[in-house]
Amino acid sequence: MERFEPSKTGLVLVDMQNDFLHPEGAYGRNGQSAAAIAALPPRLKNVADAMRAAGGWIVSTHFTLVPGKGGEPFISPHLKKLRPFLGRGDFAPGSFGHRLIDDLAPADLTVEKVAFSAFFQSRLEWVLNRAGLETLIFGGIVTNGGVASTVRDAHVRDFHCIVLSDGCAAFKQAAHDDTIGSLSTIAEIATVDDILAKLKG
């Protein structure tokens, strides 16, 4: 693993939001969960705590359904087909469901996202550059969606990317495994324990 300076490193928590993870969130209320996703919070908390102690940054991306006229959210056709239960109030800015889960809060930088990639039409690149970050460690959900898209966009912007193989998850293990394999061509792949050892060492 390449060396990194914690003060120039951000732990990017991709979409670790109540609407995805909390039992009372949009996905929980509709029985959408996976054991691998539910297991992430304590693992990522260990990394987040170590990052804070070492002087690193916590960056949280938040999937957002922007409310339109009358409060009905703008939902892309592919997402509406995939998750037909999503509706008014889900992933709404400022709502309980939109927030980072309590176990991982607070974040130093928070960015709303409206697509898989957190760089798409957002201020993410601007705040990362202003904070002086050079290395990004990625954890969160889902590996083959928001994580992969954001990692690839970070790579083309010349950030040094590290993906936590056991700090990301998908609804299907095969999708997770395949994505980790494909990301290994553009990012370092590490475990939570690898990063903890690096931060504590």
Describe the structure.
By secondary structure, this protein is of the alpha/beta class. It has one domain: Isochorismatase-like (Rossmann fold), CATH 3.40.50. Helices cover 37% and strands 19% of the residues. α7 links the parallel β4 and β5. The protein is globular and about 50 Å long. The model has no long low-confidence stretch (mean pLDDT 97).
List keywords for this structure.
single chain; 6 strands; alpha/beta; 9 helices; six-stranded parallel β-sheet; about 200 residues; Rossmann fold
Distance between the termini: 13 Å
- H/I helix tally: 9
Helix/strand class:
alpha/beta
CATH topology: Rossmann fold
Q: What is the C-level CATH assignment?
A: Alpha Beta
How much helix is in the residues?
A: 25-40%
| CATH architecture annotation name | 3-Layer(aba) Sandwich
Strand and helix layout:
Elements: E1 9-14, H1 18-21, H2 26-29, H3 35-38, H4 40-54, E2 57-63, H5 77-82, E3 109-113, H6 124-130, E4 135-141, H7 143-156, E5 160-169, H8 173-183, E6 188-190, H9 192-200
Parallel strand pairs: 1-2, 1-4, 2-3, 4-5, 5-6
